[in-house]
Queue: 2 jobs
Job 1
Amino acid sequence: MGQKNLVRGVTAIVAIGGLAGALSALPASGAARPATVRHAKSGNFVVANTSSVQKLDPDVITNFLDFQALGLIYDQLVQFNQKLQVVPDLATSWTFSNGGKVLTFQLRKGVKFDDGTTFNSADVVASLKRVQAPKTGDASASFLSTVTAVVPEGPNAVKLVLSRPDSSILSGLTSQNLSMLSTKAIAAGTLAKKPDGTGPFAFSSWSPGNSFVVKANGSYWGGKVTLPTVKFETIPSEQSIASALEANSVQLGLLTQPQVANHLPSSFKVDKVLDLSYRALMLQDKTGPLANVNNRRAIACAVNRKQVLGDAVFGQGQVVGPVPVGQFATKPVSALCPTPDLTKAKAALQAAGDPSGFSFTAITSTDLDPTSAAQAIAVQSQLAQVGIKMSIQNLAGDAYIQDWLKGNFQAAFAENGADPNPYTMYFRYFGTGANLGVPAGYSSSALQKLLVQGDAATSTASQQRVFNSLSSNLTSNAVWIWLFDSFDYAALGKGVQGFTITPTRSLQSLRSTTVS
Amino acid sequence: MTLADPELVLPTEAEEESDVTARRQGLLSALWRSPNGRAGLILVGLVVIAAIAAAFGGTPYSPTFQNPATVLKSPSLAHPFGTDQFGRDIVSLVLDGLGVSLEIAGLAVLIAGVVGTVAGVIAGFLGRYVSAVIMRITDMMFAIPAILLGLAVVAALGAGWLNSALAIGIGYIPIFVRVVRGPVLALRESGYVRAGRVLGFSQGRLLFRHILPNIAGVLSVQVSLALAWSVLAEASLSFLGLGPPPPTASLGEMVAQSGSLASTAWWTLAAPSLAIVVAVIGFNLLGDGLRDAVDPRTRRR
């Protein structure tokens, strides 16, 4: 009997040990489905990310992976290069006239949409009108807030009439929410189901929550596309993406966690870039305890950004204010508390009439940003030091995006796209008629005025002055709590060559990527 | 048959009480005599002591205290299981997590045990129509794996301490119904219950004094095994991000979080995994030991 027990005991240990091992290899939190790691079929170039493609209409997307995936299908009039300068895309050149109030684009010839129609000025007019139509719900409609008319000048030129000189209009036009769409597809109303662009790849298939496949566009205007297909696969943990890379079932892993990216075997090439985005704790400032500016200030002073950066991404990045990059970058990062100050935080709580603190809930989505769990745990512990109780609610990616767009949260750990131009970044959140005013959760006439002043300023020095006031206004009112900017990592699978990662996260270089 | 028949002389209440006490004493010593039971008792004892210590603040450090100076330190005298990416002491976190796991597992088993036992007794003791209805519902619940049922319940109710317990508990109700109904069916037809019925004992007296004490052994085995599954189910739910949210310590969540650190900081994965293994093996062995102890065939040996 003793021997039988021993055998039973050993079997139990092996079984449970195996189960624990299997658990650790499974994808992490928020994922109620197993990782879909499959071996790449010949010719299938697999790009893996924890997130999944959420929507197909380029005008309404807000998820980073949607921008990356649809960025392979659609082109814009202009685009950013590696140095974040605006360079031609479907517009070959442009000129400002009439004191900066008219912007004329010359359009590229010989460009075809996937539906076979030829790109011309009518498509530009239809695309930009669709962006401006309120019923479209374009996430970046504010970028065209100064555009009063879009007029074709023959088939290969188009004129934008502006209400005032607008220094940010070009950087706004690089947005994928302002992609060039086919007049035919707009009329047919099929864009939400069947993408139809002019980019290096054409839409092939989409399995929501699982995969998104594009195929090479044989009539691409920019030359031959080397990869026949690119498949985006959702693998809900970055550790599993690393395993899939090692197993050669993934050719490109899009990662954010340095502890994963930096510990891949040395045979893997890992590119990294400080990306054009920022992490922030967005606050809904209209109701509840966060409507009180002093409560928000208490949060701003209690949060230790450097420690959050350390905990979430092992210090691989930089602490930032509202404007993370470029010549107008916010310095210091907060006008109120550039470094944590618990005494000031407690004084703010006292002034708010909540000396013992208050409670609120913050949402995260580890599907969309795997580092958000660690950010939340760090901030939660820091706020607890002054009596502020922050509950954490982790949501699946699609649920998070829905709640975020509806402003259905008290606080949200968010990763937002940045831009060298503060007007482009914030007019859509805080400007007059801002189309993301609901998730922004705050509005003030002072901010609206500063944004317009900054955009209309004629000299860099006066722009600098106005945008400094803008940053200062945002941080001293603790509108949101800006945290940090970190690196994006692209882990290249075996034999992958010719891929470069950009600060805008564009995957356009996939068109000339090869796999040996 | 007459009442003078020696086989049908019913014990007095005092005799019944002393018999139950004797059985209990016998059970404990039988449990200790079984190697499985002894190992189970020791492991479960350790886990329970650790959990109670954590509940009364007996951890070496505060489980939520984040120290930037001690981020990802390997095991040392100051931190026997090292520290995590927030500089928190892993021993303290694991002890706290064990406590939370036991609380959730305990409540889950209480829910499953009480609901399952009541339903099982009703199914076994009352008419066959009631029994048929209960057993068909049980069959339907059995068709869905307990962990999937748990996932569905948490997805519907939201993540949290109580919801985790409820989700796990509901999943394990059918097992208790099945385990209880069988013996109750057999006992219902046993000589002493039939005699009690002839003597006009109420249904309640028959149930609570003659049937329930006799299935206590089977139930105790089941409770111990269910605790093992529940600890594992709680860890699985937390691993998938459906357990109680931070700052509540949770072993499954610790395993999930440390997945990406396993190659650089193995101790962040080792300690919570070990705690889960010890708790699960402990309750399993205890269940095995109890089964040996209450099974008349193995007891005689």
Job 2
Amino acid sequence: MPMTITEKILADHAGLPEVVPGQLITAKLDLVLANDVTGPIAIREFAKFGVEKVFDAGKVALVPDHFTPNKDIASAEQAKLMREFAREQQIEHYWEIGRVGIEHCLLPEQGVTLPGDMIIGADSHTCTYGALGAFATGVGSTDCAAGLATGEGWFKVPESMKFVFHGTKFQPWVSGKDLILYLIGKIGVDGARYRAMEFAGDGIAALSMAGRFTMCNMAIEAGGKNGIIAADEKTAAYLEGRARRPYKVFGSDTEARYAEIMEFEVSEIPLQVALPHLPENTKSVEETAGIKLDQVVIGSCTNGRIEDLRVAAEILRGRKIHPELRALIFPGTQEIYRQAMREGLLDIFLEAGAAVSTPTCGPCLGGHMGILAKGEKALATTNRNFVGRMGHPESEVYLSGPAVAAASAVRGEISHPGEVVGNG
Amino acid sequence: MGKAWKFGHDIDTDVIIPARYLNRSEPEYLAAHCMEDADAGFARGVKAGDVIVGGKNFGCGSSREHAPLAIKASGVQAVVAESFARIFYRNALNIGLPILECPEAVAGIEAGDEVEIEPVSGKITNLTRKTSFQAMPFPLFMRELIAAGGLVPYVRGRLKNA
């Protein structure tokens, strides 16, 4: 029977010749991850299973990235609890501050997440790894704990939706972020609820790995169970020298069945901004131009990769951040940070008057490092603009890609990059 | 039996329990801030046995299990919604917080109504308006999970029998 890439990976890990949507399966896990917010609860629940050791210390990643560097005593205690568990269990994939990065930037970079993998993570943006052609989905701490104890998880095989992006003539500055925001604007924040979101077409093939990570990262913002892009030669090139073990490449059969297929022309997709308080409230940047901002955040698991920083630097080079605005830049990992330094991007940011931080999830979830006061507005390259997401419940978050964010930081209001650098 | 607290569509886990409280995970602490950014009076006013009634896509966003933990520890006996976001749905079942999917009940319950819930059968009764509703039944596997008292006892049982 023809299957989608998602169905094939699930069948492979369930030890079944085939699976169909709706089927309940138990699947073997290649990786189980948690962070300093979800990890402590998972560790607490793990202790209740009556097993001494995690199923495989080489298939667990514990990433202290949310409230780190520790923002206060309570978060230091949470980080400590996870650190002690990692040491006691001899967890292979654990990093301390100074080596750690934002989990969904770090694990692919370190070659821990690979095509064909079956991954669960106690973080909703675990779906990011689908960009490598893996099945990866977010779960809660108790599911994570069960995964740690047994190396397995239960899953309902999702129906798949296919989103085909045609063409490679992107409008200037348009990135993967604009494609995914545009799509969420079309289908809504529950438009892919419980479903697999498969991205395909020459538009997707044309995207850098960074753009693909951004798209799969935000599958959860449409309610998706996973986002997925079949691995190709770009994926292989990205994994060259990174992959820590052999991997298996899957692809959808041409006759695979989809609950829905939607097609888009990339040339028709303009730069996007999502207005408060849902990622589905998207408009073109022109329609939102002129909204005054107090803060711009560039970074996060959605847009904290070197390609994102290069775009921001291209716009900020030789320019200044608006005097009434704070611009905060968060490289996703130490490696990205160093690369940005080598390329002179950090100089550009500092010269412009932006703050550059060590990698952390920090402001994206309203944790620390850039919290908004009552009534303040921020434009961020992050993934959520819910009520209170970045601070006070009466603050506002707008979402965009790095080009619009950098241009808006210069002008102090939401702006098309063409307004800053010209439309050449 | 308890009072209904009604909320709209797409209630995300950030408003159920804002990230500024995620530096701790004790259920009682989380309960003290439950629903804070949607209704600042909720945590003070909620009583044991009360019911949360939400629209579509309840619990969307972050995978934080702190959200169903906060609701459960606040004394809420069940959440009734038109539909649930996937991770929240799993988390609630895993920790033993009853959730019922029933658009008709959501339409037929107003804030402050007295509501009675039978989580196993899925029967929802609005005592104030003298109406009753039947929620979507759970698949067999999930009924077993619920009967075991959540994922931890369920997996413990399986590990013991292995």
